[in-house]
Amino acid sequence: KIKFPTCSSNMPAFRQVGEKQLPNPVLCMAWSPKRDLIALANTTGELLLHRLASFQRVWSLPPSEYTGKEITALAWRPDGKILAFSLGDTKQVVLCDVEKAEILHMFPMQSSVTCMNWMEVEENSSLGSFYNSEDESKLFLPELPTLPKSEEKSDEILNLLGEVRLNILVLGGDSGSVELYAYGMYRIATLVTAFLIGMFLSLCSDLDFLSVVIGQLDTGLLSECLPEVTRMARKFTHISTLLQYLHLSLTCMCEAWEDILMQMDLRLTKFVQEKNTSTQVQDEFLDLLLWGQSSPELQALLMNQLTVKGLKKLGQSIESSYTSIQKLVISHLQSGSEALLYQLSEVRGMSLWKQKFERLGLDSEAIDGAITAVGSFSLKANELLQVIDKSMKNFKAFFRWLYVAMLRMCDEHVPPELNKMTQKDIAFVADFLSEHFSKNEELFDRKGKYFNVEQVGQYLKDEDEDLVSPPNAKGNQWLKFLQDSTHLKVLCCFHPIPKSLCTL
């Protein structure tokens, strides 16, 4: 039950003006600072948003194992566009978009949050001029492309900064600590209150309540360094949103990659396990390529398991999937990496300005490590593009040849445009068979398959293992130059790392 009181002009007490029935008890509530909205958290772990006047429900966010089920505190961002709430069972703080009821950002806490407040820093004239000249990234960087609409969060994460003015989310934990998060994302201070001594006591006459005032903390450093704190906070919030943007881009790439692309690997492995001859799979396909003849086992694999229709579908799936992934790498992953590298480079420049930022704890060595990681990520994205380009050419030539060969096995008509194969095409398919159709015992021990014909999926696996089939670097003049150079040899950002994109 919720009651709505009001204060009468001729009475010191509040007067009730409304009452609403709810199915579950309410643990905490918060009124929007800008709109006629009230957020409620009930005992079931559900977060509700209602119109205050009519109490019409706008949306509800059910509890989940991913976020948590025990909401302990609520707070609105001063502009009323983001709602923060804490969860006691998972010890997390979640930022939720008010318009779409989408979780935009979440971060863990050391202890359960018992109270929170989100306030806006008061602006003065000197800080106002600083705000106007602070962010020059829009002058040098193009706007990031919008993520595909199928991705729920789309590009709302890029709006987490909200307005330019600094706002701070203050979180109080049950361990006695207080943490300050600029823009609700970047922690700028941690205060421990356990050491404070009581300054004032008051006991209620009926012994119901004891009030203790423990003290007032000095945060003068934040006030003195407000422009620097604001600059740091905005930079690190930009970095955090860009990391989320890259994560969502990788999610879209993983969705574009389909399990159907592994059918060739698994069917070839089954073929090796079931065939009675000692002939290598590679030799079987080369015989078909050179002489147009196939063994009964290979013919059964192609005609009964793979089938002409299945081969055509597999070829279309690979082309569609690879094209989608290629577009995402070029338009989203590379542009996001460039923006991230720009922001980190600016932060590194700030860290070298010792007079302004040293006492705020900026460490240039840690930033150098982050820049190196972004460089490795960009290098891996470029490597993936090369693998996609090569794989698309290989698969197109291979499937075109195999499709014609299977049509001939069925004694079906072969279209004239498919019947023409140059010597270059034959050499192309032969190289593809030699490189990808060799039986690999070590791969079977690791992945349960002898072949890794499809090589793009390994870049999208979140596994802390080396790539199954890394690109052949033999004869690469750039890598040879790096190895021979005394100075560049130690810079790992220039060297390929045999890990997947998701792992990096």
UniProtKB/TrEMBL annotation:
Q: Which GO terms describe its cellular component?
A: anaphase-promoting complex; nuclear periphery
Query: Which GO annotations describe the biological process of this protein?
Result: anaphase-promoting complex-dependent catabolic process; cell division; protein K11-linked ubiquitination
SUPFAM superfamilies linked to this entry: TolB, C-terminal domain
Q: Where is the Anaphase-promoting complex subunit 4 long domain?
A: 216-411
Q: Where is the Anaphase-promoting complex subunit 4-like WD40 domain?
A: 29-120
Q: Does the keyword Cell cycle apply?
A: yes
Could you tell me the superkingdom of the organism this chain comes from?
Answer: Eukaryota
Q: Which UniProt keywords apply?
A: Cell cycle, Cell division, Mitosis, Ubl conjugation pathway
Output this protein's name. Answer: Anaphase-promoting complex subunit 4
- Species of the source: Cyprinodon variegatus
